[in-house]
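can u do me a favor
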């Protein structure tokens, strides 16, 4: 009996000419979309078709944002808004950008992370007419150049800022401070960026109202905790192919991100230690069954070190020198300041690229550590994050932009504000139909007893949901 072997080309062979990495810098390319526009800078505009498919898939998992687009596009609540954005450029962000466009806004966009951009999605946005300046693997100079191309454009000036990390806001303050005369507000979604805004406010240098989306319950609880609970495993598995059972892990920081990471690793059988500066979060870690330690106490024995504090120099060169052979080091915080990567770029240490976003840093005695994403945000640099959770954050961002843009003069002063609790609850309610969930309604008597409106808000504005 004879067997017949059929050899089919792989997807890489079929699409390789479109998806392969081109060493030429996008800044040196002359590209136009099908409409003849060249007001963008992406890796390869020919990847647009693939990016469009990813965006369409993301739309299916972002019910609230799509519902908001459908409900509000007739009213155009962002008509006249000129939004400059600096966020991760992924399929989920693309759905947000196209929603803002459907609501009447003009947008220009750059990436907040040099490794997290999905090139095909950036191409799809550019093909659709969005001025996008981003590609995966930007240099530091490219990063600031892209932000400047979004801001410094003839005949167009932003009146709203959507930031993730504060770099865009910082750039405008540094280079174009007069722009703030026309900017109505800033919406910021990260711990790092919010910290920068509060510093500006405290120093009396914040010249426009700012909305702190990071500390809204729907962002803090769902994006920071549930998202990281799933994506930490995805990022580690894709980069290292490791097994988690029995591994000793230290997680630096027990905020919402740290809680998500610890829960996931514990469920997979890892032995998890926690470091923390805040006694309240530290007590939570202890009550959740984790051993609270100082990093120096366990640095020689752990297999994985994860930072998620939002701080700087959490893992220093001294810590790195004392780590065991093959220890994996990564960061789940927004900024790349948590691990002192710069201290590893010295003549006596050898860097060896193992695969994309994975480096071996080798000591003279042969010891090596495995450094992921060069200390940048692991999940968005090395894997993906759950689309449904990002729908919650993106909807919160859209509502914050609508609120600040349409607020009557005097409602918001030059300060940092939390999203009104009513909007937080509205975002949550838009996602409940996905689970066929049915809310219980208060009776008139119950509402009167609690002193609440039957339709909410059910919590005061200062409320934050903690586990």
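np, heres the sequence
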């Amino acid at each position: 009996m004879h067997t017949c072997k059929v050899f089919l080309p792989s997807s890489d062979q079929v699409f390789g000419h479109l998806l392969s990495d081109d060493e030429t810098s996008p800044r040196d390319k002359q590209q136009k979309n099908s409409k003849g526009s060249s007001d963008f800078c992406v890796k390869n505009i020919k990847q647009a078709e693939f990016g469009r498919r990813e965006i369409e898939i993301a739309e299916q998992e972002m019910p609230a944002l799509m519902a908001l687009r459908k409900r509000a596009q007739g009213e155009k609540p962002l008509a006249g808004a000129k939004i400059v954005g600096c966020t991760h450029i992924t399929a989920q962000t693309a759905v947000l950008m196209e929603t803002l466009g459907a609501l009447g806004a003009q947008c220009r966009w750059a990436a907040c992370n040099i490794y997290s951009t999905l090139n095909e999605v950036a191409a799809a946005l550019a093909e659709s007419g969005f001025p996008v300046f981003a590609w995966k693997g930007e240099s530091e100079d490219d990063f600031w150049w892209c932000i400047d191309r979004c801001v410094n454009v003839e005949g167009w000036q932003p009146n709203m800022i959507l930031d993730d990390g504060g770099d865009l806001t910082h750039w405008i303050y540094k280079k174009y401070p007069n722009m703030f005369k026309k900017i109505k507000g800033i919406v910021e979604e990260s711990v790092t960026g919010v910290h920068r805004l509060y510093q500006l406010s405290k120093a009396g240098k914040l010249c426009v109202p700012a909305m702190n989306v990071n500390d809204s319950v729907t962002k803090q609880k769902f994006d920071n905790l549930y998202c990281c609970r799933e994506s930490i495993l995805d990022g580690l598995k894709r980069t290292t192919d490791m097994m988690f059972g029995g591994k000793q892990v230290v997680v630096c920081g027990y905020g919402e991100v740290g809680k998500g990471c610890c829960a996931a690793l514990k469920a997979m059988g890892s032995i998890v230690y926690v470091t923390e500066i805040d006694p309240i979060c530290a007590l939570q870690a202890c009550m959740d069954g984790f051993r609270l330690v100082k990093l120096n106490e366990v640095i020689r024995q752990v297999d994985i070190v994860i930072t998620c504090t939002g701080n700087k120099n959490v893992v220093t060169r001294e810590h790195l020198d004392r780590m065991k052979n093959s220890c994996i080091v990564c960061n789940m915080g927004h900024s790349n300041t948590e691990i002192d990567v710069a201290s590893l770029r010295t003549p006596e240490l050898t860097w060896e690229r193992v695969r994309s976003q994975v480096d071996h840093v080798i000591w003279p005695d042969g010891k090596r550590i495995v450094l992921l994403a060069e200390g940048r945000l692991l999940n968005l640099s090395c894997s993906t994050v759950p689309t449904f959770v990002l729908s919650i954050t993106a909807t919160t961002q859209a509502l914050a932009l609508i609120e600040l843009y349409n607020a009557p003069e005097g409602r918001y002063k030059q300060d940092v504000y939390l999203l009104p609790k009513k909007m937080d609850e509205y975002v949550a309610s838009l996602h409940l139909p996905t689970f066929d969930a049915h809310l219980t309604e208060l009776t008139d008597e119950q509402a009167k007893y609690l002193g609440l409106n039957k339709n909410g808000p059910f919590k005061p504005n200062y409320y934050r949901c903690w586990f």
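The chain has 17 helices and 15 strands. hope that helps!!
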